[in-house]
Each structure stands twice: as C-alpha cells, then as structure tokens.
Amino acid sequence: VDEMEDIARISGMKDIERTSIFHALNHKATARQAAKDNNTQYEKLNLIVAHLGGGISVACHHKGRVIDVNNALDGEGPMSPERSGSVPLGPLYKMCFSGKYTYNEIKQKHIGKGGIVSYLGTNDAKEIIVRVRTGDSYAKLIIDAMVYQIAKEIGACATVFKGNVDFIVLTGGLAFSDYVVNELKDRVNFIAPVLTYPSEHEMLALAQGVLRVLRKEEIAKEYTI
C-alpha cells in the first residue's frame, strides 16, 4: 500500500527515494477498529499507528490514507526484537568494506540478528521482561532503548500532523506486554490518548476489505509493484 505524500518520499540522497513498506493489513484493520470503537470513521481521523512485532512500523494515518511511515524492512525507524532499525552510517560503511562480511552477513546483522537479539541473544519479549523484573539492568537498558526509539518515531509522526492527533494506536505482538505499553504511554500520552490492540489482524483485514467492496461501501483498489 503506497499512499505517501510526495514530501515524505524525499530521503536526502537523490538516488534513493523513501518507499512505503510496512505492516499495511494490520495497520489498516486496527485503525478501522479504533475508529469504530470511538464511534467515528477511519476516514475522519488523524491516527498514529505503531505495529510492534519482529519488525516495527509507525505510520501517519491521515483521514484514511497512510501519508508517511518508516520502512521497517530496509532500515528506517526504531530497532525491534530482531531488526536494527536506523543505525549510524559511518561505522556501517566501514563494516561493509572491511572484507570481514558478505552482503548476506551484513543483511542478517540488520534483519534477523539485529535489534534486541543482537544485544541480548533472544527476541523473546516475555523472557526479556522476566530478566528485567529479576534485576537484569542490562536487559532493562536495551528494552527501554527500544521503547525510547519507538516513542521518538511516534513523536516524529505527531509533527507531520502539526500536533493534531486524535489517537495513538498500538498493535502487534509486543502490545501484549504491559511493560512495553506502559513505558510507551508514559512517553507519548501527552500527544494523544493511547489505544491498545494486541496481536495481528491480517486475515480479518482481508475479509473486511472484501466485505466493504461487496457492500459497495468502498471501491476496490489496484496496487502495482
């Protein structure tokens, strides 16, 4: 799904354009549910939706369109349980040309072996929270750093809306974690009320989309790659 504004596509390097790659089905389904639960329509709201899973994508939903979002696959945004997110490029250049790593090894450091797993050896949030609650200060530092980065991304999205945000919506597997949710709320609830919808809803999103078209509530959209 690519609904990004032209201004959001500018990366800062002419050869590279920012692209819309995110957890679109879960974003859209959760955003619609949040609107329904608050007796309004998705197309009337400004929402910041954060999918918190193995990858993390945080998007600006402006009246039914995702006008900006971090590319969670290619290295933008917060670190996640197994992805590095945005990293300082200088040291990365040196790693790439050091002769120590293949292309695939560098890619694995970013996706699969990056993020929390690179620091703590696991991507299991439940295990990490147990370590935090039993006094593991390093585990606490790393999970808190991830929350900090997610909060910064949410704050950046708020500037896209010039502060006019109706709700912040948290979804994905990490939204089951009271620790993660409460720490995030503590950092971002000054922006807008925070709603939580744990898990992923891709299949529901597909079914609901078909129903909306069959009921003539929505025109079917065609997306090209």
Question: How would you explain this protein's 3D organization?
Answer:
Helix 1 (24-37) packs across helix 8, helix 5 crosses helix 6 and helix 6 (137-160) packs across helix 7. The chain has 8 helices and 7 strands. The strands form 2 sheets. It has a 5-stranded mixed sheet, sandwiched between helices. A two-stranded antiparallel sheet has the order 1-2. The mean pLDDT is 92. The termini are close together. With 225 residues, it is an alpha/beta fold. The longest helix is centred in the middle third of the chain and has 24 residues, at 137-160. The protein has a single domain (6-214), classed as 2-Layer Sandwich (Nucleotidyltransferase, domain 5), CATH 3.30.420.
Please describe the structure with a list of short key phrases separated by commas or semicolons.
alpha/beta, Nucleotidyltransferase, domain 5
